[in-house]
Amino acid sequence: MELVVKSVAAVSVKTATLVVPVGEGRKLGATAKAVDQASNGAIAAVLKRGDLAGKPGQTLLLHSLPGLKAERVLLVGSGKDEALGDRAWRKLVASVAGVLKTLGGSDAVLALDDVAVNGRDGHYGKYRLLAETLLDSDYVFDRYKSQKAEPRALKKVTLITDKAGQGDAERAVKHATAIATGMAFTRDLGNLPPNVCHPSFLAEQAKDLGKAHKGLKVEILDEKKIKDLGMGAFYAVGQGSDQPPRLIVLNYQGGKKSDKPFVLVGKGITFDTGGISLKPGAGMDEMKYDMCGAASVFGTLRAVLDLKLPINLVCLLACAENMPSGGATRPGDIVTTMSGQTVEILNTDAEGRLVLCDTLTYAERFKPQAVIDIATLTGACIVALGSHTSGLMGNSDELVGQLLDAGKRADDRAWQLPLFDEYQEQLDSPFADIANIGGPKAGTITAGCFLSRFAKAYNWAHLDIAGTAWISGGKDKGASGRPVPLLTQYLLDRAGA
Predict the structure, then answer these.
(1) Residue 82: which pLDDT band, with cuts at 50, 70 and 90?
(2) Alpha carbons 137 and 184: distance in angstroms, whole number
(3) I need a surface site. Which of 44, 54, 126, 155 has the fewest CB within 10 A?
């Protein structure tokens, strides 16, 4: 779907479908009044019959109104006079997208300037959310279905705005298009079956990305290199699988050579059985999504490449498959990490922190401005925050604040959890420097505490996306593409874009 921005009068556009808002109580804003006047009161006559109340997201399709070049007019409810929240605005746009999908026209024009969105006074914020929602609604994953989805007629959507706001709206569409492309890449990787998407497959994806973008350097560290580097924790996770682990290093140089890079670290457990600490069978198929941290880093990098942001960015993807076998790590094993710290593995299902801890140590060599790791790390995060908000911890108040702000502006929110020293005591081990679990209490926080011991050399933050990376069960089951909007917004802010 192509999105364009124009500054034209809604009544003059030639299109298959013109979309205009109607307020609750059947109130017409400036755009709807102009369209109504041009059509000799056709809209007012329909509303007078009570066919549309104007509640947010309600729609009414009208055909062949006189005096207009548009073949159809789609009325959409925009609610009461007060501004809509982000959620209501997204629902309104999603409702419009749902109707447009069912129509035969190849184009549509959205004249929604009259709708106010709370906290998004400028054109940029409002149209960024609109564009992301429209583009995300176009996503389909059907590559393993023998009967593919019907090709959609809608190919182009024009967003009408005033001349003063056109530049901001165009910038919003540019950013939203890159983010939506990144989200789709992330969703594709997450939705792939685990017999296809294993560590070596992800390494090939990285190589393909490197071939397509000259400014991107790609290095793949195989299991021998991982072992030779002393990454005992990382290596231990993959040793029970026939699929060998991979550490994928992607280095994008968009800034000055002297600029310190930002580093994104993604957990890439391509399937998590729990290992010897085997998970229950019910719902285990969804453990293919345990690589969504790595997938979201891939997606964010894709957005950065499309936008050619003037920053330096290193992406480290810690990829392994956690399987039970005669060679698998056992509960009670002790491993030595790249940092020299020893870890007693009390539960092999707490494997994400093991691949991440060595990768966080590896990140030191890049002398980063900041390091952010992203992981579907703990079920406890879902208990604490549900499926709407990602968990956030870190050793830098400034970095945490920047991520919280980015999440708010991208409508991809996170919530800070504490890393008090008292929680560190739960990780004490009588046999090693640290245990890999801290007991049943505060599981998300103790996982963050574990990682913090390997991230003391730089400003670091940890995003637990266990609840937000995918939609669980039902017809809508699938990867969500989060937190690509949050991470991309953070990097946009650093780039001043």
Answers:
(1) confident
(2) 11
(3) 155
Selecting among 267, 353, 409, 413, the annotated active-site residue is 353
Question: What is the b/e burial string over 16-33, where b = at least 16 CB atoms within 10 angstroms of the residue's CB?
Answer: bbbbbbbbbebebbebbe
The structural domains of the chain, with segments of one domain joined by +, span 2-161, 180-495
Q: How many CB atoms lie within 10 A of CB 163?
A: 8
- End-to-end CA distance of the chain, in Å? 24
Give yes or no on whether 2-161 and 180-495 have one common fold: no
- The catalytic residue among 27, 227, 260, 279 is 279
Calculate what percentage of the chain has a pLDDT beyond 90.
95
From start to end of 212-348, where are the E strands? 216-221, 246-253, 262-272, 312-322, 334-336, 342-344
Which CATH code is given to the segment(s) 2-161? 3.40.220.10
What does the pLDDT look like over 238-253, one tens digit per residue? 999 999 999 999 999 9
CA distance 16 to 22: 19
353 is catalytic: yes
Predicted TM-score of the model (pTM)? 0.97
Average pLDDT value over all residues in the chain: 96
**What pLDDT digit, counting tens, does each position of 186-220 carry?**
999 999 999 999 999 999 999 999 999 988 999 99
Fold of 180-495: Aminopeptidase (3.40.630)
DSSP string of 430-465, one letter each residue: SSSSEES---SSSHHHHHHHHHHTT-TTS-EEEEE-
H or E stretch at 331: none
